[in-house]
Amino acid sequence: MAVVKARDQDINLLARLLRAEAEGEGIMGMQLVGNVGINRVRANCSDFKGICTIPQMVNQPHAFEALLHGYFYQSAREREIRLARRAVNGERHWPAKFSLWYFRPKGDCPPTWYNQPLVARFKKHCFYQPTAETCQNIYNTF
Predict the structure, then answer these.
(1) What is the sign, positive or negative, of the torsion defined by CA atoms of 30, 112, 106, 58?
(2) For a tag on the chain, would you pick the N or C end, based on fewer CB atoms within 10 A?
(3) Record's superkingdom (predicted)?
(4) What single DSSP character describes residue 64?
C-alpha cells in the first residue's frame, strides 16, 4: 500500500531521480535515494514544509545535484521504476530509513548536515536524519 499518493508519471519521475542521483551506487544506493525522497514528501517539517507530492519534492529548488548539473535527462528503466514503487509503498532501509538529507562529499562525512546528525555512509553518500523533536512525522509508522 502506498505511503504517499503517486500516479504512474510520479513513479516515473521518482525513478528518473533515483537513476540520476545514485545509479553508480547500485540497487541499494538508488533505493536509499528513494527513501529520502519519500521521507521528504511525508515530513512536512524543516525545508520540506508544504512538500506534498513527488513532483514538488523532485522539483524543489536546489534540492538535488542531478537537476542542478544536468544529469536528469535519462529516462527511467524498469529497474528504477520497480525501486521507485518499492519506496512509494513504504519499503525503507537503513541508513535512509528516517533520513531527509544525503550528499556525496569529497572526503569524510561531516558529523552534521543542515544541523542534523549523521546516520551513516553508504558507499559515497552520507545520510542525515532529523531528531524526533524537529520532525516527528518522519518517525510515524505507516
Answers:
(1) positive
(2) N
(3) Bacteria
(4) -
How far, rounded to the nearest angstrom, does the alpha carbon of residue 96 sit from its chain's CA centroid? 8
For the chain, the maximum distance between any two Cα atoms, rounded to a whole number of angstroms, is 39
Closest CA to 24 of 128, 127, 126, 125: 125
| CATH number among 1.10.10.2520, 2.40.50.140, 1.10.10.10, 1.10.3720.10, domain 8-140 | 1.10.10.2520
Measured at the CA of 87, the angle between CA 114 and CA 129, to 5 degrees, comes to: 20
Report if pTM > 0.90.
Answer: yes
73: Cβ contacts below 8 Å, ≥ 6 apart: 20
Is the model's pLDDT at 31 over the cut of 80? Answer: yes
CB atoms closer than 10 angstroms to residue 114: 11
Mean pLDDT, the chain, as a whole number? 92
